[in-house]
Design brief:
The structure holds two protein chains of two kinds. By secondary structure, chain A is an alpha+beta fold. A four-stranded mixed beta sheet of chain A has the order 2-4-7-3. Chain A has a three-stranded antiparallel beta sheet with strand order 1-5-6. In chain A, strand 5 and strand 6 form a beta hairpin. In chain A, helix 1 runs antiparallel to helix 2. Chain B is α+β, with helices and mostly antiparallel strands. Chain B is built from 20 helices and 35 strands. In chain B, strands 5, 6, 7, 20, 22, 23, 25, 26 and 27 form a nine-stranded mixed beta sheet that branches. Chain B starts with 6 loop residues before the first strand and ends with a helix. Classes of the chains: A alpha+beta, B alpha+beta.
Chain lengths: 117, 831
């Protein structure tokens, strides 16, 4: 029923986590720089590990969370568990892509909080 | 039908798992919704219209305790029931356990109908608790339920791993420290009968407690020391606290550090992303050493050991009488747990089985010995008339989610449905089936989204329907138009210095929009301020096999020394990104890594961009090429070709003259006309000489093939022979293609095989060594060179070819850079 991702070396996952971390930190640097290029290059390399297949990550920051979502492992912060929104991404969702096929290789790890004031 | 039970389930307090005995081995089924994990959190969540079990439910545990239930195993056999707020119903621990068992059934992907199973129970379970577990099994649709004590299951897993046919009389401890609970049992085998003699336990001790301890006792004090907080721990742990979100993150990081500490003496935790009371950004790396962690958990581990001592005293057993302590449960991966247990008890610990799955594995081994007592079909429900489902949904969508609606005909009473996305990222949970169903299905962008709708009866047996998988194409190749021609980039042809060739960026029929980045090393220096130092980024439309000048130049960027902020050296990278929108706007960007500068331009096909300088240069190149070809054709007495080329030469001379006379700021269409004429001439030249080029490359291929065959016969291995055969098998296709690039590529592949073989051949190695020895006086480190040459002589004499190969590489490294390039060229590196 569910297509399992091929066994992805942990090293690749670890590298992507680090790239994501760097990208997150980069967003806080106000001085103009071109670090983004190197990050994009790393991302592109990982996206084409094989000729037509590779790994990509995505940040679900700001997306709605509910119990049907199975691409992230969430910790609920705050008092309410209604109208939850992902407000921090500890680890991104890593997907294995090959042509039109798209499988989750590693769930994201996120913190969610109610969007209600 | 198999006549033994074969299926075993570890129905754990915190996690559960299912395994099957198949032909002498046990297979653990993976949790299809939790990648790479074989366990299912024993947590059940109720919503108005659905039930969720496992990780999804666990996430809501702390915040929604009225609807999410865990650790109900402790309440098995009691009269207690849980009032569910969402459904306003009372649920018993038996019903909850049945939900976990039903979910585990969905892990089984072998097509088996599960009607009999072995379920494990703690050694502490009494008759009522045991019967309650059996009832949960029946409720989940198992007609036959056999119970097995967890410590015995773990011991069986160990015995089977050791392939011990019959276990010798003796006794041992099973120490089970999991995520949230601790159990220990003394197990004895006598005359082939294994039984639990005594047991103890703590329902509130496990790995999760250790993670929280790391946060409370190690991270919080270090943060409080460095930054200003009023009461950091309360701010973190209180649901209304400012930093409650950070607490979950810290627990996650603490867990990772804990796992790392099992392998390395210290682990770093990076804490950032929030502010202290004064508004200062927290950004600190907290180092936790293994000894700090060990001191932290020591009191808890010692408490477990006290329980063991109690058992031993109660049973009047000395440490010497116990063979070993079998370690079970994920937390026994912690080295200190193993070490401390051994140290205090003076009994060797045994860590040979996988602590997380041992109980389920043992249960499956036991199941393989228990005959099935039922042979009737498992349930009546699965025999209900097949349902018919009419579905309606958009097959293509650019939305984030798409509404799925369906109409069900047939008897839907007591049935449930569940929709799961193929990548596992969406699970609707079990919902009551009714005549009409509708669901919002979230889509993964730019991909084909497959969903499967499955109908289950009340015991999670699949009910047949005529429902096909749901396929929704999300933004992927929708209405994208294919490219009519290849889009290529012009690059220097390193094999033929002075000439250029095309590399395809987007191939014909690729779907727009498209984007690609190529990183290429520069082949020349660019000196800051020097306008004669130039780089051209030329993008062409047309067949990749043609010569650049025969194709249509659709975008060009010129970078001169005047435009750069610093000198850029040969060998540094240029990153060229080419993208084409659906409406065919071409964007070309060249980024020089050394000067950190980007040059970008958008080329709109309506405004053709023809650079006069470039046109003149192309005309010049084309004229040189024409002369060469003309000479060659005359020499070979190919008069027809020669006359055609002479005609082209005249035409080109005219184009060249007009281009020279045109002023740089000419506003007429003249430059475009000249560009067109030049292109036509180039195309004709290409057509007239293409046969010659391809024949030359084919000749080279044949020659390389013969040489390669000879080398393979004398020194090739199976792998190389296979690669060779594969290339030769493809000959009909690439030779017939008349594509010079494809044939060249195959020649290169054959040359790589040759290089591999040569570097193992004694004659070749000795030849190289001889040449390198002669270069000794030029080498960078004379004393090292001397010792390598001496060692090389010895290796040659003793015919140690592997050593000689290493020495050759070593000597190559000592050559001055220029000589090294020459040598590698000679010996075939980089083929």
């Amino acid at each position: 029923m569910i297509t399992e991702a091929p066994r992805v070396p942990k090293l690749y996952i670890d590298i992507l986590d680090q790239v994501f971390e760097i990208e997150k930190k980069l967003a806080t640097i106000e001085q103009s720089n071109s670090i983004g290029r190197n990050i994009n290059r790393l991302r592109e390399m990982m996206a084409t590990i094989d000729k037509d297949a590779g790994l990509v990550y995505e940040s679900p920051l700001g997306e709605v969370f509910n119990e049907t979502r199975n691409d992230v492992e969430a910790s609920i912060s705050g008092e309410s568990a209604e109208n939850l929104v992902i407000n921090e991404v500890i680890k991104p969702i890593i997907r294995y892509r090959k042509g039109g096929v798209n499988i989750i290789a590693r769930k994201g790890v996120v913190v969610v909080q109610s969007a209600q004031p | 039908m198999e006549n033994t039970i074969n299926f075993g389930i570890d129905l754990g307090t915190t996690n559960s798992a299912i395994a099957k005995f198949v032909k002498g081995e046990v297979v653990i089924f993976n949790n299809p919704l939790d990648y790479g994990r074989a366990t299912l959190p024993s947590v059940v969540s109720y919503r108005k219209d659905k039930i969720l079990v496992g990780t999804q439910a666990k996430q809501y545990l702390e915040r929604d305790p009225k609807n999410v239930l865990a650790v109900f195993k402790r309440k098995m056999g009691t009269a207690e029931s849980y009032k569910i707020k969402a459904t306003n119903e009372s649920i018993t621990p038996i019903q909850l356990s049945a939900e976990v068992l039903k979910q585990l059934k969905t892990f089984v992907n072998t097509g088996d109908k599960l009607n009999a199973v072995v379920i494990t129970i703690p050694a502490s379970f009494d008759m009522i608790q045991s019967n309650a577990t059996k009832e949960a099994g029946h409720l989940a649709g198992f007609d036959q339920v056999v119970l097995l004590q967890e410590p015995i299951a773990a011991s069986l897993a160990y015995a089977n791993m050791k392939k011990a046919k019959e276990m010798e009389d003796g006794q041992w401890l099973v120490y089970d420290l999991g995520g949230g609970t601790f159990d220990v049992a003394l197990v004895r085998i006598k005359d082939g009968e294994m039984k639990v003699l005594d047991h103890e336990g703590d329902n509130f001790l496990g790995g999760a407690d250790f993670d929280q301890l790391i946060v409370e006792k190690l991270i919080v004090p270090k943060l409080s020391e460095q930054y200003s907080f009023d009461d950091l721990y309360t701010e973190l742990t209180s649901a209304s606290g400012r930093l409650n979100g950070v607490y979950h993150k810290l627990c996650h990081l603490a867990e990772q550090a804990k796992v790392r500490l099992s392998a390395v003496p210290s682990a770093e935790i990076e804490v950032n992303g929030f502010q202290d009371a004064t508004g200062e950004d927290v950004d600190i790396e907290v180092t936790i050493t293994r000894s700090e962690f060990n001191n932290l958990i020591k009191p808890h581990i010692d408490r477990t050991l006290e329980m063991i001592k109690t058992i031993l005293t109660r049973k009047s057993i000395r440490s010497n009488d116990v063979q070993y302590t079998l370690m079970v449960g994920g937390s026994t991966y912690i080295p200190f747990v193993r070490q401390r247990t051994e140290e205090v008890l003076q009994i060797p610990v045994n860590c040979e089985i996988d602590p997380t799955t041992a109980v389920a594995i043992g249960a499956a081994y036991y199941a393989a010995t228990k005959p099935k007592e039922i042979n009737k079909p498992s349930t009546e429900a699965s025999k209900v008339n097949a349902l018919s489902i009419r579905a309606s949904y958009n097959k293509a969508s650019k939305e984030k989610d798409e509404l799925f609606a369906a109409r069900v005909t047939g008897n839907t009473d007591g049935l449930f449905y569940r929709i799961v996305r193929q990548d596992g990222g969406f699970d609707s949970g079990l919902k009551k089936l009714s005549e009409r169903i509708s669901e919002d299905l979230p889509l993964v962008d730019s991909a084909f989204n497959y969903f499967v709708l499955t109908v289950y009866d009340g015991q999670n047996n699949v009910v047949d329907t005529d429902m096909e998988p749901i396929t929704i194409n999300s933004g992927f190749a929708i209405s994208g138009q294919p490219l009519p021609e290849d889009i290529c980039l012009e690059v220097d042809d390193l094999d033929h210095p002075g000439s250029t060739r095309l590399v395809p960026i987007f191939e014909r029929n690729a779907i727009l929009p498209a984007r690609k980045t190529a990183t290429l090393p520069l082949t020349r220096n660019l000196i800051k301020g020097n306008e004669h130092d130039r780089i051209w980024i030329n993008v062409y439309e047309g067949p990749q096999t043609s010569l650049p000048s025969a194709n249509k130049l659709i975008g060009v960027i010129e970078v001169t020394g005047k435009m750069i902020t610093r000198d850029v050296s040969k060998g540094s990278d240029i990153e060229i990104t080419i993208s084409m929108s659906e409406s065919r706007d071409l964007t070309v960007a060249g980024y020089l890594t050394m000067s950190d500068q980007e040059f970008k331009n958008v080329f709109n096909p309506k405004v053709r961009d023809t650079n006069l300088d470039l046109l003149r240069e192309h005309v010049g190149d084309l004229a040189d090429q024409l002369d060469d070809e003309l000479e060659a054709a005359t020499e070979k007495e190919e008069y027809e070709t020669a006359s055609q080329l002479t005609k082209l030469k005249k035409q080109l001379a005219k184009v060249g003259e007009e281009a020279e006379n045109l002023s740089d700021d000419d506003v007429t269409d003249k430059r475009y006309q000249l560009e067109d004429q030049k292109r036509k001439i180039a195309q004709e030249l290409d057509a007239a000489t293409k046969d010659k080029r391809i024949n030359k490359i084919k000749e080279l291929y044949t020659k390389v093939k013969e040489e390669c065959q000879e080398l393979l016969d004398t020194g090739g291995n199976d792998h190389e022979r296979n690669t060779f055969r594969n290339i030769v098998a493809q000959e009909p296709s690439f030779l017939a293609s008349n594509n010079p690039l494809r044939v060249q590529e195959k020649s290169d592949e054959l040359q790589s095989i040759m290089a591999e073989i040569k570097w193992r051949t004694p004659d070749f190695l000795m030849g190289i060594f001889k040449w390198l020895s002669e270069q000794q006086h030029r080498m960078n480190d004379q004393s090292q060179a001397k010792s390598l040459v001496d060692a090389g002589r010895f290796a040659s004499e003793s015919e140690n070819w592997a050593r000689l190969k290493e020495i050759n590489y070593g000597l190559l490294d000592l050559l001055p850079k220029q000589a090294r390039e020459q040598a590698t060229g000679k010996i075939g590196f980089g083929l």
